[in-house]
Amino acid sequence: MIRRTRHAAGVCAVLLAALLVNAARVQVVESPGLEGNPGNRRADIARYGVPRGDILVDSGPVTGSRDTGGRLRYERTYRDGPLYAPVTGYASQTYGTSLLENLEDGILAGTDPLLSPLPLLDGLHRVRPPGGHVVTTVRAAVQEAAYRGLDGRRGAVAAIEPSSGRILALVSSPSYDPGRFAGTDGASADAWARLNGAPARPMLNRAIRQTYPPGSAFKIVTAAAALDSGVVDDVDAPTRTPRPYVLPGTSTVLPDAVEGCENASLAYALQWSCNTVMAGLGARVGLRGMVEAAAGFGFNDPGLRIPAGVSRSNFDTDMSRDQLALSSIGQFNTTATPLQMAMVASAVAAGGTLRHPYLVEKVTRAGGETAEHHGPRAYRQAMNPATAMRLREMMVQAVEEGTGRKAAIGGATVGGKTGTAQHGVGNKGTPYAWFISWAQADDAPLPGVAVAVVVEDASADRAEISGGGSAAPIARAVMRAALHG
Amino acid sequence: MTAPPAEASPPEQRPARRRGVELSLLLCAVLVSVYGYACVGLARQGAVPPDAARYGAGLGALALVAHLAVRFRAPWADPLLLPIAVLLNGLGLVLIHRLDLETPEDVAAPTQLVWSGLGVALCVATVIALGDHRALRRHARACVTAALLLLCAPVFFPPVNGARIWIRVGELSLQPGEFAKVLLAVFFAAHLAAHREALAEAGRRTLGAVRLPARRAAGPVLGVWLLSMLVLVLERDLGTSLLFFGLFVVLLYVATGRVGWIAIGLALAAAGAYAVGTLVPHVHGRVEDWLDPYAGIAAGEGTGQLAQSLFAFGTGGVLGTGLGLGHSVLIGFAAKSDFILATAGEELGLVGLTALLLLYGLLVGRGFRAATGLDDAFGTLLAVGLSSIVALQVFVIAGGVTGLIPLTGMAMPFLAQGGSSVVTNWVIVALLIRLSHAARAPRPAPAAPQTPAARPVALR
């Protein structure tokens, strides 16, 4: 019986060995896979176990954290959520993150090695450092002026400091409150479903993620191309533009909205927005020259990040001459984000040099010590400095005596360009009203701000929609806020 | 489960009593438990809990009382049994307390401490009152009657979480199957000790190639198999029936050495388990869950208990998150009972889990060691039976929560929340202490020829 008792003990030993081998399998071999399993909430619990760092505007936080006492302990809150949503994005326990909340997640959540004083020793202590802060380049007064100016109408505003590339405002309207769906409860799910189903698409970031036909605002690019390529030497000389202007290779006549465009000079054409002159100049510059000029302003760059990805603004690289002519006045397939058009104005204001636009000034540790600083960076040389000088003068003309008079500000030099973009089948859609401009305070050495405004309000009277009418006053308010606010 | 020396040692070389070793090991067990309790406090509140000393003193007092009982009533007992039980019980209390922090509305540790005290008291009483384990043999019939009554009782009570294994009296709930298993072990040991020759000798009737034993010896065998299946079907308690059957098969083998019809028994059990696994939805669901623990996640139906348990083990990795720093409470309602091992796996890691399993292995091994040292068939079979109960139970529940075998609701001995379980396990330890005392005590002078009835049939 002793022998058989030992057999029984042996069987128990085998069972124990099986348990140990299986435990090693689960805890060592399968451990990494189990950690990443979508059903495993531990990563979320750790992530929301500490308050998230804040996103700062004018050195004040526009975000916050609320201790819910629940399993996912800290929930994101937003101050002026709809105002800053195009900058911050959202950080939801259910729906993930977007924009800065997404791109700077490592900093905000405290996982980024930048936050660790001794990165190599990170694995040794388990406690996650408190989340760092993200200091944006946005200025509250400029952002508010833009948001108030749009006043709930569909549209967007982008404002840049030309000398540095700092983004001073990024507004999309209508907007949403990211705090509405920060948690995991039913109210969050309802808010998320409602926002995603809303026909006005409040969660679309129109400032950087929506492209519009730029219309006449694009004529700045065409003018720069004409001057840089030598097609136009003297901005006041007649441009030999026939009237009626027939698109090259077709029998389509291009109309003008104003009188006096026949054979007009570049200065006159820009001041009064002559379609015929600018289309003809674009066609004469040629496809290669126009594509190069557009690319110099940032068109066709799919990789622009501020750090949020900016949708690619388009200028076709393969077109017939009539298509090129239409594209040169911002029609056909030419599309641009509001940020792109702000960059166009910025390049003119800054003497032809285009800085890389950026939204994050620096990131800091929880205590406020800088962990990483972002300075101005070169992006493109959009045009010759001399060309920029002449364009500046023409844009100032357009504000002082032309289509952009509603943008003028006392005590500052303002240059601008209107645009009214036809779109839709047979141009039946409500036109988009554009205004791009820049402003330099009289006592300042450099232009302080470049702005692009687009308004796409379907409820507005169609006749009222013109760059000079509905977009220019918004640009004026934004520029005033940037210069004085 | 170290193999004992191959040859029985002569009486003069029997081991020393080792009561001092036991006392120092008990001190270690209490210190480790208090250390664990302090770790939980440090991790969760940033300070050693103010009542850590009280917890240590309470556990130490229980251990000391048990030690004194052993010292004076079973001085030759194996010195490892008691410290292992105290350590497992102490760690169980720490783990339950740690999970209590996550579920403030359902605090279980104080109750468990009361039950542990009761268990130790019962252990002490058994060690003191039961002078000679052979006395139990005379009560085999009473034991099996009581076991059957206990097993049948839950049928008259409502099922809890799909299994009908509880008796509820007011606030108090008992799991009679826990007590029944010790009683059944006594009965099996007594019956097989009495009939082992009849069972080993084949009878005249044959079934195919296997010759069946006499009906008087085989009758209770068939009866118990049917009983285990009945329990399974009526109470949906796969674990208990598996335990009874395994216990029975082990004892049958040790008693008779007949592999042939143990194989038949296993085949019948497999057939029964397959039938129930396919036909009873509650059991079938567990098998499905075992085959694919993550099916619910993929289907968007949420995460099942087994998947949560595996996440806990996986998160623990080799070294664990540290006591108090895991999230095994995500497992849900059974986290403190059936799934307590997941908390150990997550917070103590593979290292801690291995240590725990080796502790069980050591406990079982010492039980088998006592079995091989005993001269009477009943004692040997009882020691084998009790050790096997612990071994099988550990295997079934640990294998279940780590995904090795389909999950069956069972309590991890000493570790899991559950009064009936902890009390029963203390009784098992008490019996093993008695048995190991009998196995290790110096033999009386060689039996005089004129008193052959004083000792049971020689076994070797």
Automatic annotation (TrEMBL), chain A:
Keyword presence, Ribonucleoprotein: no
Signal peptide per UniProt: 1-23
Keywords, ordered alphabetically: Signal
Annotated Pfam families: PBP_dimer_2, Transpeptidase
UniProt xrefs under Gene3D superfamilies: DD-peptidase/beta-lactamase superfamily, Penicillin-binding protein 2a (Domain 2)
UniProt keyword Secreted present: no
Taxonomic superkingdom: Bacteria
Gene Ontology molecular-function annotations: penicillin binding; peptidoglycan L,D-transpeptidase activity
Domain Penicillin-binding protein transpeptidase: 155-479
Annotated GO CC locations: plasma membrane
Sequence ranges assigned to domain Penicillin binding protein A dimerisation in this UniProt record: 52-134
Biological-process GO terms, alphabetical: cell wall organization
Matches recorded under PANTHER family: PENICILLIN-BINDING PROTEIN 4B, PEPTIDOGLYCAN D,D-TRANSPEPTIDASE
Protein name, as recorded: Penicillin-binding protein 2
Organism: Streptomyces genisteinicus
Automatic annotation (TrEMBL), chain B:
Tree of life domain: Bacteria
InterPro entries from the UniProt entry: FtsW/RodA (IPR001182)
GO molecular function terms noted in the UniProt entry: lipid-linked peptidoglycan transporter activity
Pfam families named among the record's database cross-references: FTSW_RODA_SPOVE
Keyword set includes Cell membrane: no
Keywords of this entry: Cell shape, Membrane, Transmembrane, Transmembrane helix
Protein name: FtsW/RodA/SpoVE family cell cycle protein
Lineage: Bacteria, Bacillati, Actinomycetota, Actinomycetes, Kitasatosporales
